[in-house]
Structure formats: structure tokens, C-alpha cells
Amino acid sequence: MTDWSALPGYVSHRDGPEMPTVTVETERLREACTHARDELGFAMCVDVVATDYLGWAGKGVSGYIGTASGRDMMHPADQGLQVLPAPKPKRFSVSYHLLALRSGAASIAGKAGDARPKGGGAPRVRLQCWVDDGEHVPSVVSVWPTCDWHEREQYDLMGIVFDDHPNLARILMTDDWEGHPLRKDYPIGGEPVRFSDEQ
Amino acid sequence: MTSIASSPARRPIVAEPQYDGSRIPSRVPTILDVPEELRSSEDVLQVNFGPNHPSTHGVLRLIVDLHGEEVVGVSAVIGYLHTGFEKSMESKTYWKCVTYPERIDYVGYQNNELVYVLAVEQLLGLEVPAKATWMRMLLCELNRIHSHLVFLGTSALELGAISMFWYCFRERETILDLFELVTGQRMHTRYFQVGGLAEDIPQGFFAECRKFVEWMPHALDDYRGILDRNQIWLERTKGIGVLSAEDAIALGQTGPNLRASGVDWDLRRDQTYLAYDQVDFQVPVYPNGDVYDRYRVRMEEMAESTKIVRQCLDKLERMEGLPWIADDRKVVLPPREELHTSMESLIHHFKIVTEGFRVPAGEIYVAVESPRGEAGCYLVSDGGPKPWRIHFRAPSFVALEATATCLHRALVADLIAVVGSLDAVMGDTDR
Asked: Residue B272 maps to which CATH number?
């Protein structure tokens, strides 16, 4: 088992069905990522994704949930009621999904050992940090070059500012777009209409 | 037109390791900057490639700096096809969302649909019947062949081999007919449901699919006959657009692009899902990382996928009469015929269609090996009937990040070959 608490800036971790989630301090994110790449063998960052938790758990979500065996219609409450989700520490989470190219068969052809990660351990991990609106996240483009566009996308759509990013510009929306569409306070249908009847 | 082969910047056909260290442009990894001494020489011509050029496979715009015939600077502009799928899905129930992922990657649609339903099923903890699992695998492999055929046909067409296009689209047509037979739709099938499949496998499908599986190896022989010893094809592809294994990993490349750079990695085998651990297939890997190796990897993957489809058929033919969708009335629509006789079923149907089913709170990231590489679905649920946040990890988006590295010291004619070989679908890139 990987000792996650050795990560710089480690805050907490929890296991998930598909991969563990390790929360790290935002300020030390780059250190944590470098450590994950060099010491834990996470050679690849597959995805960077930010989530806006504005209004999380604010509205009622009671009701029955489906499960594998279905619900006994004669005893409708025997599986309990849906519970309110736990509140989140800050408004935005920024998650880095890391992948270690390790399994029985994986190796680099002709160069076995070069990129082979050290030791066993989890093949995937989610590094997560939390920020409020206006707070910045250190860019990890210097750790994984692939994060260039991923970070630009999250900046564009979610408004997360990545410090020291070499080219932090909008990528999917146009350069003069106002607002960040994936934020929860950005309404569907609220975008300006560019070519209306009046124009 | 000047002969390409006589140009001084042309590299030898025999692919040797042509990179001294990393070729990633360092300041911005996805932009190739014009060298200082060239910029001041006024010999550099800036050209817009796209966004409406047919060989961009959609609406990709490359701003290319040319010094003679050599590409000295390149940056990609994307987003022309951004449709806000992720935002739209946040306002739809899980049941209605199934249609969206297919339209994101509209060539590898079945695999994208799969990654979404797998994510929801994992959060629900829902068991899927074996028949649905095997049928999903069969359709995903057919879809992989379909996607590689589109790649092969169009990228060969762009390099002048127009006959390849007709041959590839002949087989593609057969696959689309198979999809139509099963799902009623040629593309964007909406056949996978949370819990299994929308309908049972129709009669006559196995026979038709077997015919295709028997024919496909011959079709692949045809393709090899046209291209494998075609001198023009070899000159246009060998040693072009080189991406080393280290650069491919650093740039997050997955799928055929990664395997053509010599990295032996396939999620179907290495982080298995569905029933891929129960079928026999090989993962083709080639070491040179050039356009030619990307072509070879995809050619062999089509042969391997055909093998998987055959094994799925063997398995599915013995599953006649078994359930194709989970029996959970809180998540899955009740059988149609029950609606006329059962009040309970009618209520369930009504509730699922109008209000949707609820998914336990949590976050999850599920990845599958799509034809373009790792397609991932990150899903956050707050316990309600709509996704709180859904995000798709698009392999095409990441593939295009490698254009600057691949085009390092390339010729302008190679630009088309390189962009085609990365096999990006712009719908997937822009979402």
C-alpha cells in the first residue's frame, strides 16, 4: 500500500471504489505532484478537472435510492433514506487524475525499466486541492506538460487561475467571452446572443 | 510542384531514433515558437490552416509559420465546436443524459456512451447482467473498427490514396448496418442504458455479424495490399511526425498514439473492465512513434477487434433468453408490456422518465479504452437525479496537444499526415 501521508502538504485521504482521493494543501500542490511523479511513479496526468460546489447540499435531496437488488416494495423504508451530502471545505475542488503505467504487462518496449514505476501500489490516484473564488492554484505544467491545455480548459470554463502557467488564455470559449460557463452561478440560457434580429 | 523527395530537409525513410532528447517545445509545451534568428529574417510566412479545411477532420485551426517548406512554428486554436455538453448535462436527469456522451466523440460514440453508463452504474453499485456486458463489448469493438476505418480512409485520402477511402467506407457501411439492425440507429444509438441494454438483441443479428467477422480479415488484406508496399505511402509516413515514448507519456498521450511510440499500455488489458479479461487478444505496439507506426497499430487493432467480436458472438449465442438489463425498478424502466397491466410499473415508468432516478452522493472517475485512447468520465453526484458535475476526459483533446512536438522540423506537406495520424475528432476535442 502506498503511504499517502508522505506526500508534501498532505491533508487527508479516503479510498474510493475506483481510486483513492488524496487532499493536499493548495500552496504545496506542485511539490506534491513532483513527489507523486518521481517517487510514486505516476508518470502520467490524465485529467485535470475543477468542480464548483456553490449551493452544494443546499436543496433537499431526500428520496429512495436504487441498489443492486432493488427495493422490497412491502418494506419501502428498509434501505433508509437518502442523506444530505457532507458540506465541502471550500467552493472549488481541483482534481488531478494521475496514472501510473504499471500492471503485469506494461513496460516501455526496448527500454524496460526506464519508465517502470518504483515498487507496487495504486495504479491511479486523485490529487485534490480546494480553493475559494479568487484564490489561485499553482500550475503543474512544469511537472506534466500535458496539463497545459487541461489547466487552460479549467481556467476558461471554471475560472480557476493557475499561477505560473506559461500561457493561461481561454481555450474553448472565444477570447472576449465574459464569465466562466461551468460555474454554478452561470445560468443556462444566460449567455449573450451574438446575432439577434436587432443586429 | 517541386519534388518532396528531393527536398534537403527530408529525413531518411528507414525510421531510426530521430530525437535527441525531448522534442517538446519547452516554454509552452503545445506551441512551437519560431526561432529568434528566423523571426528577424523576414523569411517566415504565417499561414492559417483551417478552421474549414477538410483535412482538419472538423474545425481545427492551426496557425503555421513556414520557412520555405519547413514548419518552424505552430499553434493550435480549438473550440469552434464547443457545445457545452458538460453544462447541458447538469440540467438533465441521468436517464436523459445518455444521449449526450455519444455526440461528444461522434466517431467512437459507443465507447463514449459506455464510459458514462459505467460511471453511473459504479456510483449506484448496480450489477449488470452478463449478456449486457458481452453485448456492450461486442458493440464497442465494432465501433473501434468503425472508428479506425474512418481514420484510415480519410487520412489515406488526404495523402492521395483515394481508393482507400472507398474500400474503408464499404466496410464501415456494413458496421453501420449492423448497428441499425441492433439499435435502429446507424450512429448515436442510445442502446446502452444504466443497468444494461435498451432492448434484447434482435433475431438475425448473430448471422449478419458472423458474415462481417468472416469478411473483415479479407478486407484488411485488401488494405494492406494497397498500402503496405506502396512507395508513396511509405515516403509520406515513415519517419514523419516522430513522438518518442518519453514525450508521449509527458504529453499524456493514450491509445494508439501511445502504443505507436513504443509504450505497451492498453486499458482493456492493464486495467480491465467489462469482460476483457475473459477474451483472448493481443495489444499491438510499435517503437518508432511516426505516422507509419500509428497506421500499423490501428491496422492491427482492427484485426484484434475482429477476434474479440468473434469471441463475443460465441458467448452471446449461448445466452439466448437471458436478461439483458438489471431488474431494478428504481433505476431501470419496467418492461413495456407491463405498463398495460401493472399500476406499479406504470408509476415506476412515469417517475423514472419525469423525475429520474437518484444516484448516491459521491465522485467517481471511470476510464475505458476508446478508439482514440483513454476516454474518462468524472462524475460528481449530490444524491439527486441530475449530475452535479460531469466532465469527460477527451483523448482527442490530449492528442492535439502533441501537434507542436510532432511537427518539430516537419515539412508543410507532412502537416496533413501528422494531423491525420493523431486521429483527433473535433467534437471530442471541444465538447
From this structure: 1.10.645.10
Domain boundaries of chain A, sorted by first residue: 1-55+92-105+120-199
B320 located within any domain: yes
Quick check: B135 pLDDT over 70? yes
Interface of B with A in 122-151 (CB under 8 A): 122, 124-127
Q: What's the pLDDT score for residue A154?
A: 93
Nearest CB to A110 within list B262, B329, B384? B262
Looking at the domain assignment, is residue B317 inside a domain? yes
Q: Which CATH number fits domain A1-55+92-105+120-199: 3.40.50.150, 3.30.460.80, 3.40.50.720, 3.40.50.300?
A: 3.30.460.80
Cβ density class A127-156: b for 16+ within 10 Å, e for less: bbbbbeeeeebbbbbbbbbbbbbbbbbbbb
B269-272 contacts: CB < 8 A, separation 24 or more? B269/A103, B269/A105, B270/A101, B270/A103, B270/A104, B270/A105, B270/A106, B270/A123, B271/A103, B271/A123, B271/A124, B271/B367
Asked if the structure places residue B300 within a domain, the reply is yes
Checking ipTM against 0.90, whether it exceeds it is no
**Which of A:47-86 have CB within 8 Å of B?**
47, 49, 51-52, 56-57, 59, 61, 63-71, 73, 82-85
**A166: nearest CB among B27, B327, B357:** B27
- Note whether A101 contacts B245, CB cutoff 8 Å: no
Q: Which helix (H) or strand (E) holds B196?
A: strand B196-197
Q: Has this prediction a pTM greater than 0.90?
A: no
Average per-residue pLDDT in chain B?
Answer: 86
Q: How many domains does chain B have?
A: 1
Is B41 contained in some domain? no
Q: Does A174 sit within 8 Å of B361, measured CB to CB?
A: no
SS3 B339: helix
Question: C-alpha cell of A153?
Answer: 480548459
d(CA B93, CA B267): 29
CA distance linking residue B355 with residue B345, whole number of Å: 15
**pLDDT the model gives residue B15:** 37
Per-residue model confidence as pLDDT tens digits over B70-127:
888 899 999 888 988 998 898 888 988 999 999 998 898 999 999 999 999 988 888 8
